[in-house]
Amino acid sequence: MKTIEQRMTVCRHHNGTVNKECKVGVVYDVISRRKELGDCGCMLRLPCMGDSVGSTTRGNKVEPCTSYDSTPREVVEKAEREFQRAMDCMRRNVSQCCGAEIDKTHVIPDGPHKNHGPRFCSSCHKVVFMV
Q1: Which of 11, 21, 78, 102 has the largest CB neighbor count within 10 A?
Q2: What is the pTM of this model?
Q3: What is the DSSP code (8-state) at residue 118?
Q4: What is d(CA 126, CA 30) in angstroms, rounded to the nearest whole number?
Q5: How many structural domains comprise the chain?
Q6: What is the distance between the terminal CA atoms of the chain, rounded to a whole angstrom?
Q7: One domain, residues 61 and 98
Q8: Is residue 35 classed as helix, strand or coil in its secondary structure?
Q9: Would the CA dihedral through 27, 30, 31, 37 be positive or negative?
């Protein structure tokens, strides 16, 4: 797990490379020069992950991004608190929304898909998570 300081170096606009572009429209394949340099190491060339511009990754320099903006400590700390709360709720088998017990009546009881299915909040009936 990365430290808070390490997570602060990630650009606040980064939303995961499963998306074509970041929150402000920078195209990941363009900034990593994927077409020019190939797939090998392309995600390592993203400046949004906190690698210093001009540093060398597999022989290729990390190019600057004019939209890069590091994530403030408060945002990282808030995300960490929310994550820890979610993990605590899962350990206690309660929902995050109401703190009520998780309803598992729609979970498949046996067979090849045993324990798969949605888990609902027993109080407000929102989906807590699905397996």
Answers
A1: 11
A2: 0.67
A3: E
A4: 40
A5: 2
A6: 24
A7: no
A8: helix
A9: positive
